[in-house]
Design a protein that fits this description.
By secondary structure, the protein is mainly β. The chain has no helices and 19 strands.
């Protein structure tokens, strides 16, 4: 924790961002961004004389106050006493607050390093850790023999020890969004820390592709080769990706999101037939589902659409509502 007026100098032994890379300053818990600046080929620093603006410094001064050379010998030889008003530009808000939705060290990441290529449409399925192909661990997840700018919390198998070569790794996670986060005016961005190529899916729809050809399959390598993983972004995420679409989820992956209840209650299991679309209450949220089997004691076996069969369960009709028309 830095106290007021205290300075922190960071050596570049294992931290050397590339030109154009984004260097960020976050809170200790990683929940908020304090500041950020892209690396350039000139020295920049905050100027106390100019309300903390980023300006070009005259020389490096690690651990001490930033130094600047000012040109103050300017003579005004003409003054316009009745200058036209300059209109104010209100196109951007005065301040921007940044909040992290998914941190790099999130402990709910699922990953698959089996090397088995999943069929197209794999992003429509919500996987669970099975201890064979899918595992749940903390990010960052990866493997590297050299120190990186960010710490790897979960180490993958050494690629040199795998035969045949693992070309594609799959990642998946689930998270919740609040009404405040989704309110109008908020924008969402993606920062990722990878060294090769990836396709990103949000709510079962691709929204970003990095170093990967459009016709890539599970055996397609990334387009350029790179030396080490670096932070990339930010990339804007379309806000409509968070709306209620067919199924909601994030791939490398975000998951099926709950929907609003319709209020169309089911009073008796006799109202339902196997195959009927329903919405089901699970842990105080409503999810799209399908009736698989109807029992005489007002119990129904349901399948959650977009999730694997492992999540199928028998529920009371009190947890079921009929979907809105068209759903």
């Amino acid at each position: 924790m830095l106290t007021p007026c205290e300075r922190l100098a960071i050596r570049q032994d294992g931290f050397r961002p590339n030109d154009g890379g984004l260097v960020t300053l976050k809170t200790a818990d990683g929940q908020e961004f304090f500041d950020a600046h892209r690396v350039a080929d000139r020295i920049v620093g905050r100027s106390a004389r100019h309300d903390g603006r980023w300006l070009y410094a005259s020389e490096p001064t690690p651990g001490t106050e930033n130094l600047f050379q000012w040109q103050d010998d300017i003579v005004i030889n003409e003054i316009m006493f009745h200058a036209a008003d300059t209109p104010t530009n209100h196109s951007l808000p005065e301040t921007v607050e940044r909040h992290s939705v998914l941190d790099f060290d999130r402990d709910q990441w699922l990953y698959n390093q089996s090397g088995d290529g999943l069929e197209a449409g794999w992003w429509d399925t919500r996987y669970i850790p099975d201890g064979e192909k899918w595992f749940q661990r903390q990010g960052l997840i990866g493997f590297d023999t050299t120190p990186l700018a960010m710490f790897i919390n979960t180490e993958l198998n050494n690629p040199r020890d795998t035969a045949p070569q693992v070309v594609t790794y799959y990642f998946q996670t689930a998270f919740e969004m609040t009404v405040d986060q989704l309110r109008e005016g908020n924008e969402f961005e993606l920062l990722h820390f990878i060294e090769s190529g990836a396709a990103f899916y949000l709510n079962d729809q691709e929204f970003h592709r990095f170093n990967l050809s459009q016709d890539a399959d599970s055996q397609t390598l990334a387009l350029p080769s790179v030396n080490n993983a670096i932070a990339n972004g930010p990339y804007k995420i379309p806000t409509e990706r968070f709306n209620d679409v067919t199924e909601e989820s994030l791939q490398i992956r975000l998951r099926a999101a709950p929907i609003e209840p319709t209020g169309k209650t089911v009073l008796s299991a006799e109202q339902l037939n196997a195959g009927d679309r329903v919405i089901v209450n699970w842990k105080e949220s409503w999810w799209r589902g399908k009736a698989l089997e109807v029992f005489a004691n007002d119990m129904v076996k349901v399948h959650y659409i977009g999730w694997s069969d492992n999540w199928d369960e028998v529920v009371q009709v009190a947890r079921i509502q009929l979907p809105a028309e068209g759903n």
